[in-house]
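Quick entry between incubations.
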Amino acid sequence: MRPELTQPITMDTFLRGIWRENPVFVALLGMCPVLAVTNTATNSLAMGVSTLFVLVCSNVLISMLRHFIPKQVRIATYIVIIATFVTMVDYILQAVSPVVYAALGAFIQLIVVNCIILGRAESYASKNPVLSTAVNAAGMGLGFALALLMLGSVRELFGMGSLFGVPVFGDSFQPWLVMILPPGGFFVLGAWLLLFAWWRERKARKAIVEDAVHAG
Amino acid sequence: MNEQPIVFAEPRTPSSFALIRVLGLVALISGLLIVVVYQWTLPTITEQRRLALEQAVFQVIPGASRLTGYVVNQDGVHAPNSGASGRALYAGYDADGELIGIAAEGAAQGYADTVRLLYGYSPECQCVTGFRIVYSRETPGFGDKLETDPAFLANFEALDARLNAEGTALANAIVTVKHGTKTKPWQIDAISGATVSSKAAGKAIGDSAQVVVPAVHRHLKAEGQL
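Done. Structure below.
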């Protein structure tokens, strides 16, 4: 049996995945779908929601079975559980939107090996009660989905001049094609990371100045 | 002083049976969940695929109001339930039941992956009348111009696909040529900057037409429709 953690459920349990421990912008996890499928906002949203669904459902089931799963077979068990929910998403997406399914290609099936999901299962769901796990996984999943959407929106806006397929700029707009190609993924991710790093540094500098003022 | 040896407690190890039992139970839950969702979504997925295919066929055989599916191979045209293997073929008929066109599948390796398409063929003019991409992962902004570039689409207004005198093959193989060098009606003028994707579309249609067109004409002659 694995050690049980009894952390109270607070707002931070949910919010840490969105901001302080954001899987994309802070932990730099799940880079494969982050760079590959964020060429449009629709694809980003579909991948984000699919990952959110798999993350929450698989982590809740793992948390429910945590006293029952011996540590010797835990990784094999987690992978089977995650693969189950990925297969379910695969069928549901084919039924709901074949166009989005075709656009996402193999990346839906590759959610099975997304390190965010297995990482959460190992470090949180296997040690925490169901409710706390559900809240934490929802925060992490939402943080991942929002990050994908932030990348996808910028790439589609500059690469196609549209947002969710709706033209934003006039006919005279010349699409910046590199944004929807692989280099555009690296470029936009780098730009977002630069922005967040600048913002954090600015906040830290402000805090030091305020401390100095209070002290002096 | 009498020192006692330190004894470490052995971690409890579950039996092999317990490990197999857990894995078996998880696999059982997994199987049940997957089968339930599969059965639940199967009718919708089948219907979505049928609609997408039907839409593509009607687009490459404009004016068709009824379709009939067949399978075509080197031996000829077969009914879909005959057990014959080969390419899927769709015959489009107008409201009076007259054959107005054929739609057939073609595939060839593109820049990123295989390009799969459905093209229309008119037995009357012995020409390819259009195509529709069914599957493509070509580079956005370049390779995906296959269906949107007006100059490229103009190649397929009446792309020559006449049979040779023996009726065994195309008189002239359909080929894709470099942008701006088209001189013959069976040549496809490539898109500038997307030559590999253009060649894939041309090869998909050309290779398929070499099998489909002779078989269709033999079948139509045997049926007395030509």
